[in-house]
Amino acid sequence: MRLLRLFLCFAVLLCPLFVFAQPAATVPSQIPGHDAVLLGTAWYPEQWPESRWDEDLRLMEAANIKVVRITEFAWSRMEPSEGHYDFEWLDRAIALAAKHHIVSVLGTPTATPPAWLTLKHPEILRVEQDGQRVTHGNRAHASAASVIYRDYCRKIAEQMAARYGKNPNVVGWQIDNEYGYALMSYDDETRGQFRQWLKAKYGTLDNLNARWTTAYWSQTYDDWNEIPIPVGGHNPGLMLEWKHFVTTTWTDYQRNQIDVLRARVEPRQFITGNFMGFFDGFDHYTITEPLTFAAWDDYVGSGHLDAVSNGLSHDLTRGFKRENFWVMETQPGMVNWSKLNNFLNKGEVRVMAWQAVAHGADEVGYWQWRSALNGQEEYHGTLVGADGTPVPLYEEVSQIGREFSAAQEALRGTSPVSDVALLYSYDSHWAIQSQKHTEKYDDIGLLKSYYGALRKLSQSVDVISAKAPLRSYKLVVAPSLNVLPKDVADHLLEYVHDGGHLVLGPRSGMKDEFNGLLPQRQPGYLKDALGGRVEQFYALEKNVPVSGTWGTGEASVWAEQLGSLASDTKVLLSYGKSNGWLDDQAAVVTRSYGKGRITYVAAVLDEKLMAAAAEWMLQDSGVRPVFGAVPEGVEVSRRRSAGKDIFVLINTSQEARSVTLPHKMKLLLGGKDGSIVALGPYGVEVLLDARP
Ligand code: GAL
Fold first, then answer.
1. Contact 39, 70 (CB under 8 A)
2. What pTM, to 2 d.p., does this model score?
């Protein structure tokens, strides 16, 4: 007994050690038992005779493709008539893929309701803003708010979940496809739901009228049924709430299917959705919340890879859930829907694949394997041609597959980790978009200019919601945080108080959560901590000279006059001669607050000043580059986990570059170990730095 007690005491004492000895947290987008990083493709077995499948899968396997996404448009094949399901072909397709060591992700087919359904229930078809109902024959043609449609969606998802929820070769699910581009139906059912939703949120019309200041232009509502669906040019409060309602509608639409999946599928099967970078139809922080991880469809369209823009979109997607993600779809060379559907240069597809992984993607999937012989997308890029044999790009994709396999073990459990966060807010974006004041103001463009400058010097930036935890960051930058309600302002203040450095860009802290003006000057609730305020904002007709600590240059598009400065608020940049109002006024100020600092940048700065600003911000916040100097045109990224760092070097240029390593590392893609890595045009190398 005594011995037992002693043993128990010992066990309790050691318990924390056992807890710490657990392996590092797993990355949800890496599938246990499979390669940590996967190459994939969208495959449509329903479009081909079964006799062809084996050859397709053989060619995929030969290219090291490890995952296919299937069925997201196959409703009419899985349920040819109401209640009559045919899954046997799919059983065989999944099994045959598995024989070729390829696992399947199943898409629920709800972006394409079949003809029997829209014929029986034409009321599920969307009504456009002009009152016209869409016809059958395209996709995303159903109303996301339709109760009848959701019932059908639930039933098909339920059938699929019951059949494949325990299938060892099915690793996960994609709900719908791109969520109907957030399109809504302007019908009575949606209108009714919107009014109910407003009622639930505001409680009384008095409250709603007050928040939206409907006394303006005689908009006062006496009955919930008087409230319209906004179509543009409406009250800002109504417009923003419509966006919130669209977010709720699509999140509920998604939840309707998640609920039946979760109830039936094994927990190892993930659930995701394929999003579209900066597409702004709904709030992605909200809609991705119930998913296992986020995924996105990465298309260049016309032209070539803009590494900064594309890197930003990857980082945005990673920030939705602050987790690694999948690139569910990307272009095999070209698309068919752009103004000029040029082909990416030889080597550029590989650069894109590695850039995705470098920024936290654990799968890169090509859309699509082979074009259907008829259908809307005959000209789109593929990996095999109309004859079913490989196109020239197939070899480059095979190389990516071989390289993913070579590096996957090193990449296991790793994610990008950054000291710098950029804040993005859908509310602020929508608020600015609906009242731009100057058509030249581009809040995403401004975000990109901050990102480009900060990413270049720090080599790792997160893009996250303004409501996300901030404690781990040394520097937090909010380029256009227009909507800044009290709770978010308090959250930011706490961060600064505890030692963080917060940088605000123009138009920050102007509005409340109802898209109304705050009854303070900008930056609203942060004004006192900043020890200064915006006296007046100006949409610029022409550039304004600015100079100060960061050098000399120009402000364009937007400039705010900062004033009412506290004695300890420092001016970093001032405007030169301009419209008279701005002359000699403060353009950038900074102040210590608590253990941290707040800086306000009141204008859109030119590239040179932005670079100097980024250098100052990073230095002041103690942020160091994650790797060290790299030549122009080379992007370096880091993924890390306990005990190892993985660096991905990508030469985005078409000229050779060489990179000096800060110390010895192991080259994973076949380059020669040494102190210099030679990168050819569009060259890529992956480095393992296994130092503790
Ligand atoms: C995506 C879509 C795919 C395919 C692709 C073509 O947006 O999800 O189904 O249409 O575009 O580039």
1. no
2. 0.96
